[in-house]
């Protein structure tokens, strides 16, 4: 288990504001220091390859940013983790590398601060409610850290304990981080950062409410249990309601390996897990209209002895409107069938396009859809080990769309596309061979459309 670094979480509004102020000052100092060093080394002046708007994003400054986010935790770290999954063409290389470290996890609370939080949530006699509690964290994330506990009946549980002050600092954290990013001027206009931040604030407020997460987890548990055939291979841990509060969540502790460990297993296992991941994603959106949208691979634990995929962390779960899902399902089908007219029509109806885009933008948008839809257009099993060229093609088309898009994506797209990208990336990591077309049409034919009459059901691929 990776040794986690202990650092106290700044919990007061003033303390967090000071943290951002210190970060800003250190970035400016680092920039000046780097510029002076370049001058005395006789380094060449800025060119088109090193524009002035990237002068703040030196490798050292990017590391300072990552270190500060890991120390601050909360919404600032969560937003940094969201940025870390952006395409390599969007972020400067130094920032991308630093944010990779951010995605790996946060620092943890010192024991004294941890105990203070637990007492505030469960009362001063909290130890009597457990047979055992391990003060060494199992994991640390942006909003809380997880500890192992044992109930008096012998069951082992995972206790997720929220960092103090993060819930009430969402607005200021996001605003302060965006202010720093805007000052450095490193993100393209087409990313519509302000719109993304507005959505992020709402999502983060829900993620900080562990009572909401407990309800979502129970809803997922019921959906999986009711899905005949699927529930044999997938499990959602039970919530231990008597040890839950809005800032502390206790669930069954489940065994299993993360995706990066599964990637070292046999082809048969990798295929099975990749198939389960994609099948789950399609069911969530097109059959249940209720999706856990966090793309973090750590939310999936595969237990090799039983062959069961355990699902954890439901703070980012959300429902999707019927009309949006109807249109999105038809758009995915159109992408798989390379029906340009239908792709543009559905994209405009959902708000991805305004109707006033240039031919360059429309071509890039449609082509990107075809590329992303390739797994669903492929008969038999799609080999994600060969997906690298398509990923690079989407990256190139994404860069074109960032320059030419006229509007921010619809609100639903932010969380949905994070999840879809995460599912694809997991299958690529696993080098899985998945019957994507068959799985898609199974969900397509089960979907109950709303007011608009659905097309004739499609035949499943052989």
From TrEMBL:
Single GO MF annotation: transferase activity
Keywords carried by this UniProt record: ATP-binding, Nucleotide-binding, Transferase, Ubiquinone
Source organism: Coccomyxa subellipsoidea (strain C-169)
Listed InterPro entries: ABC1_dom, ADCK3_dom, Atypical_kinase_ADCK, Kinase-like_dom_sf
Domain annotation ABC1 atypical kinase-like: ranges: 102-344
GO biological process, one term: ubiquinone biosynthetic process
Source domain of life: Eukaryota
Name assigned to this protein: Ubiquinone biosynthesis protein
């Amino acid at each position: 288990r990776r040794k986690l670094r202990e650092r106290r979480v700044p919990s007061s509004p003033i303390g967090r504001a000071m943290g951002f102020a210190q970060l800003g000052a250190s970035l400016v100092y680092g920039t000046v220091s780097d510029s002076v060093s370049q001058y005395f080394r006789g380094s060449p002046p800025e060119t088109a390859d090193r524009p002035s708007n990237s002068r703040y994003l030196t490798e050292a400054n990017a590391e300072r940013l990552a270190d500060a986010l890991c120390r601050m935790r909360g919404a600032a770290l969560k937003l940094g983790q969201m940025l870390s999954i952006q395409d390599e063409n969007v972020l400067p290389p130094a920032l991308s590398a630093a944010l990779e470290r951010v995605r790996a996890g946060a620092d943890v609370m010192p024991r004294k601060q941890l105990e203070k939080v637990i007492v505030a949530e469960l009362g001063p006699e909290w130890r009597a409610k457990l047979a055992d509690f391990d003060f060494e964290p199992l994991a640390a994330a942006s909003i809380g850290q997880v500890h192992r506990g044992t109930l008096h009946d012998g069951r082992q549980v995972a206790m997720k304990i929220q960092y103090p002050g993060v819930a009430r600092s969402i607005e200021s954290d996001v605003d302060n981080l965006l202010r720093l990013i805007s000052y450095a001027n490193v993100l393209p206009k087409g990313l519509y950062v302000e719109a993304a931040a507005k959505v992020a604030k709402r999502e983060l407020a829900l993620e900080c409410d562990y009572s909401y997460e407990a309800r979502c987890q129970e809803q997922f548990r019921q959906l999986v249990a009711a899905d005949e055939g699927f529930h044999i291979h997938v499990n959602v841990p039970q919530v231990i309601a008597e040890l839950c509060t809005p800032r502390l969540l206790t669930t069954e502790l489940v065994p299993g390996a993360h995706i990066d460990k599964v990637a070292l297993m046999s082809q048969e296992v990798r295929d099975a897990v990749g198939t389960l991941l994609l099948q789950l994603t399609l069911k969530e959106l097109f059959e249940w209209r209720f999706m856990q949208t966090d793309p973090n691979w750590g939310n999936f634990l595969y237990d090799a002895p039983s062959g069961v995929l355990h699902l954890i962390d439901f703070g980012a779960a959300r429902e999707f409107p019927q009309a949006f899902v109807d249109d999105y399902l038809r758009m995915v089908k159109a992408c798989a069938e390379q029906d340009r007219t239908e792709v543009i029509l559905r994209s405009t109806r959902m708000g991805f396009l305004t109707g006033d885009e240039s031919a360059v933008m429309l071509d890039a948008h449609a082509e990107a859809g075809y590329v992303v839809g390739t797994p669903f257009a492929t008969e038999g099993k799609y080999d994600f080990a060969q997906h690298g060229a398509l990923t690079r093609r989407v990256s190139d088309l994404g860069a074109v769309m960032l320059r030419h898009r006229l509007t921010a994506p619809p609100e639903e797209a932010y969380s949905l596309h994070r999840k879809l990208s995460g599912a694809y990336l997991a299958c690529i990591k696993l080098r899985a061979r998945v019957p994507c077309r068959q799985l898609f049409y199974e969900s397509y034919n089960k979907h109950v459309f709303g007011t608009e009459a659905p097309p004739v059901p499609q035949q499943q691929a052989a």
